[in-house]
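Design review, sub-item: ligand-bound model
Attendees: FS, YL, KQ
YL presented the inputs for the 2-acetamido-2-deoxy-beta-D-glucopyranose complex:
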Amino acid sequence: MSSKSLISFVIYGFLLLSLCNSLKDNAVDGTRAYFHALKISSLPSSDVCKESSKDLNEGSSSLKLVHKFGPCNPHRTSAAPASSFTEILRRDKLRVDSIIQARRSMNLTSSAEHVKRSVPFYNLPAPGVDYIVNVEIGTPKKEVPLIFDTGSSVIWTQCKPCKACYPKVPVFDPTKSTSFKALPCSSTQCQLLRHGCSSSKCTYKTTYVDNSSSAGIYATETISFNHLRYDFKNILIGCSDQVSGDSDGQSGIMGLNRSPVSFSSQTANIYNNLFSYCIPSNPGSTGHLTFGGKVSNDVKFSPISKTSPSSDYDIKMTGISVGGRRLLIDASAFKIDSIIDSGTVFTRLPPKAYSTLRSLFREMMKGFPLSDQDIFLDTCYDFSNYSTVAIPSISVFFKDGVEMDIDVSGIMFPVGSKVYCLGFAELDDEVSIFGASQQKTHTVVFDGVKERIGFAPGGCD
Ligand SMILES: *[C@@H]1O[C@H](CO)[C@@H](O)[C@H](O)[C@H]1NC(C)=O
Ligand SMILES: *[C@@H]1O[C@H](CO)[C@@H](O)[C@H](O)[C@H]1NC(C)=O
Ligand SMILES: *[C@@H]1O[C@H](CO)[C@@H](O)[C@H](O)[C@H]1NC(C)=O
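KQ shared the predicted structure:
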């Protein structure tokens, strides 16, 4: 063999080998991983911030999404309080109760009356999700931490002079901002909002199911992102001098639902009605909330339901698989579309769908000791004796063939030292809610022009 042909033989062999390898990888990809490795640790204590290494999308504007108690939040006031898990569960239940209550009052929870209704506002308790964005308000700019919330409308912050404000977090002072303009009662905008009036200023008050509330005035103000070249002028915001309830790290909420007063709707013409986010898998990493930009080919879209209330994002869930096995759930279990909500922590499923998921999951986990936690997550395991556990994969399917392979951080949720629970729960209704935990590490794209929501894996972390 000449040295030339030897070289080409070597190169050919190398190519063949790489081809085989890539075929093998594809095969694994095609059938998907049936199990994920879950590393068991005591509750995460992250003191170093790990920035997501994903490049930001060209032509877009991004805010970092950070955990309010995590090391990536420059304004964090404290580490997560010991009670924070109980608190997350409490708020998550309240939020789901109020979503269901609102939908019931509109007759939207059972298929018989599932018709399109226009519901511009309904009040939700502050999201249980602890991810925030830091946004600049006013002239000069003042940075305030806001929870991002696809389930609510108004963007609001607490404001001076406070009758009652959250302690330890920034308070916006409108008297120091030259761009702040209170919304007059006589304005068309105020009349459209159909809220109250006080000393000719347009006022609002929202009371949540847990009796917490936020009250103040509507105003228009300039909003900026830290590295943006220009500011958004005259954005309608809520300026709240009276808040009650618990905050431990946020000054307010950035509402991103489909109502015309949400931040995403108000900036839709600038960003071509497109925004996306990625929630990181753990509090020590950053994610993003991004407006505009290009949509990657990896994103698989499902249409926003025509029957959803005008302000919500509903998409049609069509099935679930566990460990690669599609659950045998009657299609009627998914008759009502799913609400996709960044403010609900755990995905809720109708009784039949949940019990089928739970039995197969428990079946596949039967070697591990179940642990009764007396919380609404009812499939918990004590992994004290393990350092790594193989967890069955879970995929959720949506209309138009979208398959979303849930990240391991969205399958098992740590609730105590080495105790983990399945991050899904039953909802005593026909509605399902696709929650934030199950969206972790995926890019979730809201495309208002084409009325569709898309998912792509590997968006952050
Ligand atoms: C909801 O349905 C119930 C029973 O079908 C009916 O009595 C009630 O008036 C409906 N409510 C609304 C707001 O349409
Ligand atoms: C809220 O307040 C009302 C009236 O004061 C009371 O009946 C209700 O039980 C309270 N709800 C909660 C969750 O505290
Ligand atoms: C861990 O292993 C020990 C020894 O085998 C056993 O006694 C204990 O019950 C196990 N704990 C759990 C939570 O499985």
